[in-house]
Amino acid sequence: xAASDHDPSRPLHLDAKQDADxxxxxxxxxxxxxxxxxxxxxxxxxxxxxRDVWLRELHGLLSHVRAWAQKxxxxxxxxxxxxRDAQVAIYVVPQAxxxxxxxSEKVTELDLEVAEKFQACPCDVLQxxxxxxxxxxxxxxxHLAILIYGDGSAAQSQVAP
Length: 161
Description:
alpha+beta; 4-stranded mixed β-sheet; 6 strands; single chain
């Protein structure tokens, strides 16, 4: 917005229905730029997402998943958290080392539970095979950033929450 267009007495009106695909550029005081759709801005505002809220939710999510993995330790060998697209991805590695049908149902229940409980921190929970870290990184397309639960001896450069 040009300086001459700036009139703080006039509200900036964005309509979620009419402007859903309209691009909004947000420029905070540090002059960083955030480009979002109007629909995203409306949803973020409705949820009241702030950095502090999101970080509290993330910490709560990781603690919740760790407690869940401890409770299901006979089935869960490790659990990792990383980012995938614009959300958190939780990867559960079964004790069996391969896909575990008994664990699958419990992972689905956990996925639904965290989606309801941690709405400001979108998350997917998935089961993945027990592979060397380099192979897991190839499967996920990124580095597994946090080892939430399990023996870290197979994990390199993991950061505990």
